[in-house]
Specification:
By secondary structure, the protein is α/β, with parallel strands linked by helices. Helices cover 42% and strands 16% of the residues. The protein folds into 3 domains: 111 residues, Tetrapyrrole methylase, N-terminal domain (Cobalt-precorrin-4 Transmethylase, domain 1, 3-Layer(aba) Sandwich); 110 residues, Tetrapyrrole methylase, C-terminal domain (Methyltransferase, Cobalt-precorrin-4 Transmethylase, Domain 2, 2-Layer Sandwich); 40 residues, no CATH class.
Length: 274
């Protein structure tokens, strides 16, 4: 039996009681980095009284998962096997999907525990009210591939959620200021950790607020929906009113749908916001 187990993305208290029980019953631990896993287990022993009896630790990450799985027999999973990534939910911008596919192919029982996920936490904190979003994860690091993917995402009629490393976060804000200066951007830094911070505004406004030491840390970035994509769909006035976009842009869209003047629509939007 395999259990995919999410780990805290910052605060050790986010470890669930069920996760602690599964770890105490585990015989073998598959993990991204055995050193990180052992450090986490040590913290759980000290703070939550974890008493595990794990017999073996096996490193399984994006660079070796095919080789490691090829060396295993399906009978290996007759033991209580746990897989966990360094932080967060396995398979979500982390290894684990190849392991799940292996279990499906060989008829191996598996389950996935619910737990900390950065993108869902960030969306709940964003204040975007549309309800629908696209999770993309990490953009390509550089070159035409990154540019092309970002341009496609900027046409989506839904909020778009990205992950970004600290050394590329400033670059992302530069790109957004250049290609989508009108978009509302929500940025969440170091979710659930000591230096957690939330920022919301245009890319230009965020660049003015975030510099120096504030740039350090892992980031989740959420972009408001594309107006071009929204205008291309058959949205009603109710749909438009529910969008989390600047009042002036909302008023222009309402004017097109209702036939009312932009000024009248703007006054309506501002009044409802109050």
């Amino acid at each position: 039996m395999l259990t995919l187990l999410p780990t805290p993305i910052g605060n050790i208290e986010d470890m669930s009681l069920r996760s602690l029980r599964v770890l105490e019953e585990a015989q073998v631990l598959l993990c991204e980095d055995t050193r990180v896993a052992k450090k986490l287990l040590k913290l759980l022993e000290e703070r939550h009284g974890l008493n595990h009896r794990i017999e073996k630790f096996i490193s399984l990450h994006s660079h070796n998962e095919d080789r490691v799985l090829a060396s295993l027999e399906p009978s290996f999973f007759e033991k209580n096997i746990v897989y966990m990534s360094d932080a967060g939910m396995p398979c979500i911008s982390d290894p684990g999907a190849v392991l799940v596919e292996y279990c499906q192919r060989h008829g191996i029982d598996y389950t996935v525990l619910p737990g900390p996920t950065a993108f869902a936490t960030a969306y709940a904190a964003s204040g975007f009210t549309q309800g629908s979003f696209i999770f993309y994860g990490f953009l390509p690091h550089k070159g035409s591939e990154r540019h092309g993917e970002l341009q496609k995402l900027l046409t989506e009629p839904y909020a778009v959620i990205l992950y970004e490393a600290p050394h590329r976060f400033e670059k992302l804000l530069d790109e957004l200021e250049r290609y989508a200066p009108e978009r509302v951007v929500f940025a969440a830094k170091e979710i659930s950790k000591k230096h957690e911070r939330f920022f919301k505004g245009s890319a230009k406004e965020l660049k003015e607020q975030i510099s120096g030491a504030l740039l350090k840390g892992e980031w989740v970035v959420i972009l408001s929906p594309s107006l071009q994509g929204i205008q291309g769909g058959a949205l009603s006035a109710v749909d438009i009113e529910a969008l989390d976009i600047p009042p002036k842009q909302k008023a222009k869209l309402l004017s097109k749908v209702t036939g009312l003047g932009v000024k009248e629509c703007y006054e309506r939007v501002v009044t409802e916001k109050k």
